[in-house]
DNA sequence: GCCAACGTTGGC
DNA sequence: GCCAACGTTGGC
């Protein structure tokens, strides 16, 4: 079982939305590096939910990968902001996963905390100027992160 | 709201 | 294939 980190803006889709919906197709990723990580995910992998573009940014909960190699339907929808005219039904460009809700942490593990604890090579989200929205996390780092999420409870 | 970082596009 | 211009991300 591998660990990942996936970013979303809570104004667009946050952990509370996923808690309500229980599962969600993670659509709209249009970056090849991020897509390649999505397509290398396996059923049962865990992913940390990261809230970006909010105050404070940070890791807010945990998800499970419940479906893999899902074709992102928004690439074929001209009315979608994620429409990709260069993609075709024969050979879709964009594959993704469906995530399932597992847990909302009692407190956000903030980006500030993450920067204090991890170096950029350990956790890419603390890299300066990092814009990648899907990234792998080593087991040891993931376990440390889970401990932080537990101990941050009041 | 600003702007640094960075990925993508397109002219050449 | 280079690289300037442009658009987007995302922290601050």
Q: What is this structure, in a nutshell?
A:
The protein is α+β, with helices and mostly antiparallel strands and 154 residues long.
As laid out across the biggest beta sheet, the strand order is 2-5-4-3-1-6
CATH architecture descriptor: Roll
Mean pLDDT over all positions: 94
Stated plainly, the CATH topology is called: ph1033 like fold
Number of helical regions? 4
Task: Write the element-wise H/E pattern from the N-terminal end onward.
Answer: EHEHEEEHEH
> Can you count the beta strands?
6
Tell me the major beta sheet: 6 strands, mixed
Distance between the termini: 29 Å
Q: How much is the radius of gyration in Å? A: 15 Å
Overall morphology? globular
CATH uppermost class: Alpha Beta
Approximately how much beta-strand content do the residues carry? 25-35%
Estimated helix fraction: 10-25%
Q: How many domains, as an integer? A: 1
Structural class: alpha+beta
In the CATH hierarchy, what is the superfamily?
ph1033 like domains
**Poorly predicted segments:** none
Task: Please write out the topology.
Elements: E1 3-8, H1 15-21, E2 23-25, H2 32-39, E3 46-51, E4 58-71, E5 95-110, H3 111-117, E6 134-137, H4 139-151
Parallel strand pairs: 1-3
Antiparallel strand pairs: 1-6, 2-5, 3-4, 4-5
The structure holds a DNA duplex (12 and 12 nucleotides).
């Amino acid at each position: 079982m591998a660990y990942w980190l996936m970013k979303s803006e809570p104004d667009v889709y946050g952990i509370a939305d996923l808690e309500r919906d229980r599962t969600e197709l993670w659509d709209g990723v249009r970056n090849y590096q991020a897509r390649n990580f999505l397509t290398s995910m396996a059923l049962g992998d865990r992913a940390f939910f990261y809230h970006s573009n909010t105050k404070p940014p940070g890791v807010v909960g945990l998800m499970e990968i419940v479906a893999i190699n899902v074709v992102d339907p928004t690439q074929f929808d001209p009315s979608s902001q994620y429409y990709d005219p260069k993609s075709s039904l024969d050979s879709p460009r964009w594959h993704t996963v469906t995530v399932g809700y597992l847990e909302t942490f009692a407190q956000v593990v903030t980006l500030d905390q993450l920067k204090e604890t991890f170096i950029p090579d350990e956790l890419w989200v603390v890299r300066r100027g990092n814009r990648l929205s899907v990234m792998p996390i080593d087991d040891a780092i993931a376990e440390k992160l889970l401990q932080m999420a537990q101990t941050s409870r009041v």
